[in-house]
Amino acid sequence: MATSDAPNREIELQDQNRAAQPVAKQDSETKWNLDPIQRAMGQLGWWHILVCAVVFPLKFPVAWHQMSIIFLGPSVNYTCASDAALEACDAACTDWTYDNSTFSTTIVGEWDLVCANGNLVKLSQTIFMFGILVGGVLFGSLADKYGRRPPLVIAVLIQLVAGVGAALVGSFWVFVVLRFLTAVATGGTMVTSFVLVMEIIGPKWRELFSVLYQIPFNLGHLTLAGFAYYLREWRELQFALSIFSVLMVSYYWLVPESPRYLFTSGNVDGAVTVLESAAKRNNLPTDTIRTSLEQYAKEKSCSGSTSDSKGNVLDLFRTPNMRSKTLYMCFNWFVCGLAFFGVAQYIGHAGGDIYTNVAISAALELPGTLICIYMMKAYGRKKTLIFSNTLTGISMLAIAFVPPSASTLNVGLASIGLVGMSISFPTVYLYAGELFPTVVRNVGIGTASMIARFGSMIAPFVAGMGGIAYWLPPCIFGLTPLVGAFFVFFLPETQGHPLPETLEDGENFGKRQRVTSEGIDGPASVENGKH
Fold first, then answer.
1. Nearest to residue 485, comparing CAs of 372, 416, 384?
2. Are 195 and 148 in contact (CB under 8 A)?
3. Which regions in the chain score pLDDT beneath 70?
4. Could you tell me if 319 and 327 are in contact, meaning their C-beta atoms sit under 8 angstroms apart?
5. For the segment 485-511, what is each residue's pLDDT rounded down to a tens digit?
6. What confidence score (pLDDT) does residue 512 get?
7. Residue 306: closest CA among 319, 320, 293
8. Buried b or exposed e, range 44-81, using 16+ CB within 10 angstroms
9. How many CA atoms lie within 13 A of 356 on its CB side?
10. Which single residue of 60, 62, 142, 422 could bond 151 by disulfide (Cβ 3.0 to 4.6 Å)?
11. Quick check: 255 and 156 in contact, CB under 8 A?
């Protein structure tokens, strides 16, 4: 990690040596320096690291709540208790005995979710994923209107109360409702926290921190198996996974508002206050922050850019370039939702010990997430996403040509597919965060996240199509990422470019314009923002 005064020395060296540097090298370095918001707080310092250290643990409960149904409502063996002579699902059977050798209690045994009610566990998880969808859109919109911090704190409180409440209720449908509310809050914490992090970290470090942000999710998935192993009562497990959120109530005091949001919403004084605090912590000068921001606001006002300080989901589709980028990006989020959860479930069906299977499945995500750090830095977002989607697509399609009896090879190929998706997911998070302008960044990522939830809701049904034809699930899980990779070719690279602030910035970014040294149309064609 960088030391607290690294941004200061970096800026000084850039200023002293700028005249001696080639123009091409100056270009990417100059862009963030021309952004007074980023210049005021630096690209990375102790202030950034402390904020991230506080926010990142949010991803633990995100993983726990999304995956916990594996242990709350697992498949268990059962027999008819009312009449031993009857088949378990005979119409005359009214009571059942459950095998508690692996799990002491489950929601299946507590509320008799078997036979005619056997699909209710899957339905509860589908409703939960729908809650994630709703939370992403709802809190994304709220965060664009009222700031990043207030909706984040509200989401944490809802997650705590609803999650603990779900461990105490005596009705299955009340449990489903409370889990839905937990999911809405979880979706809200995901969107608002990621956008906040991306709006404070400088371009030089954005690849690294966007991936580090995902690692607590991987660790949460991994530790879930440990929690479930020692807490075999479903109520104890649900309570333990939910009570962790009580620590995050401290966000009300510890998490600052995004200075970018404050500036674009017209609150220059608020932005100055946060930036001065950040600059002091990072040992950066504070005397010119107010002057720089006021001048920047004037420039935006003169260009008419401040009139769209608050946007909505329709702004993502109003103009042609923004519309196409939104559609291509949303499809790739759909790919991640479908293939990540679908392939993980595909591996989980391999048989054996459920705790080991979940732990191995989660452990496979870590290598891909770590590889993602290097790839996005070395090759950019565009090439990384194309590669990872293609890797998943080819490995899953290969399963269709492998006999079902070759289970080890099938699991190995599916594992490669999961590694690909564990690269794709952090990439689309960062890619979308850099592609959508500040005024609609939350609602943009919220909308993309909503589309991803549709994919995750469909994933269990796709995985179940193996009963129709063995090759059908891997073909769907393989072809969809390949289509996503094709669409990425039409997206602009965002690595090294300043974040677009306004709707006008968002529309212009990635457009091809013909320019010459005289400033008129000419034979050279370059992407806007890259010349």
1. 384
2. yes
3. 1-34, 301-311, 348-352, 407, 464, 467, 510, 512-531
4. no
5. 999 998 888 887 777 777 777 777 767
6. 60
7. 293
8. bbbbbbebbebbbbbbbbbbbbbbbbbbbbbebebebe
9. 4
10. 142
11. no
| Contact in structure between 156 and 246 (CB atoms under 8 Å) | no
Q: Which residues contact 457 (CB under 8 A, 6 or more apart)?
A: 126, 129, 130, 133
Degrees, nearest 5: CA angle 70-345-120: 50
CA distances from residue 162 to 167, 185, 193, 251, 415 in whole angstroms, order as listed? 9, 9, 20, 18, 34
Instruction: Give Cα separations from 112 to 84, 88, 118, 165 (angstroms).
Output: 17, 12, 8, 21
Structure tokens at 395: 């490995």
Place of tokens 């790919």: 335
What is the predicted pLDDT for the residue at 515? Answer: 37
425 contacts 503 by C-beta, under 8 angstroms: no
Q: How far is CA 321 from CA 60, 176, 310, 381, 500, in A?
A: 36, 41, 19, 19, 14
Structure tokens at 225: 């198996």
Assigned token pair, 235: 């109520």
The pLDDT of residue 298: 81
Neighbouring CB atoms inside 10 A of 295's CB total 12
Q: Are 243 and 164 in contact (CB under 8 A)?
A: yes
Instruction: Tell me which long-range contacts 520-529 makes (C-beta under 8 A, separation of at least 24).
Output: 527/492, 529/497
pLDDT at position 303? 59
Q: CA 347 to CA 361: how far, in whole Å?
A: 7
Query: pLDDT of 171-190, one tens digit each?
Result: 999 999 999 999 999 989 98
Task: Work out the burial of residue 522: count CB atoms within 10 Å of its CB; fewer than 13 is exposed, 13-18 middle, 19 or more buried.
Answer: exposed
In the block, tokens 């060296």 appear at 13
What count of residues does the chain have? 531
Crossing angle between the packed helical segments 472-488 and 407-435, to the nearest 10 degrees: 30
Q: Is the dihedral of CA 60, 65, 68, 70 positive or negative?
A: negative
**HSE-up (13 A, CA, CB side) for residue 514:** 5
